[in-house]
Model the fold of this input.
Amino acid sequence: QVQLVESGGGLVQAGGSLRLSCVASGVIFNIKAMGWYRQAPGNERELVASITSGGSQNYADSVKGRFTISRDNARKMVYLQMNSLKPEDTGVYYCNLWPPRTGFFGQGTQVTVSS
Done:
């Protein structure tokens, strides 16, 4: 059974930083591309960043230059370093495979950026 558990969210002022973590179980992690997704209130869930098994990264235009995705295959962890946060970054952040599997979305971690 695949389980993805996110942590690291919180309340931060605009311009601040947060580091999100996701630990995976039940999946052959090191061969899977992973992604971070977010859902803002009233919006659909969107891809924020992705990373292949080899470490190639892609970012949504809205976070380029501010967010960095990384992974630790030995620990089955994927991270999202978020700097220069903006109020529009507020939402629930999820990790999942990339492309995502609907049934693999967990509870996510809330990020709230105050202005």
Observations:
- The mean pLDDT is 95.
- Strands lie at 3-7, 10-13, 18-25, 34-39, 46-51, 57-59, 67-72, 77-82, 91-97, 109-114.
- The first strand starts at residue 3 and ends at 7.
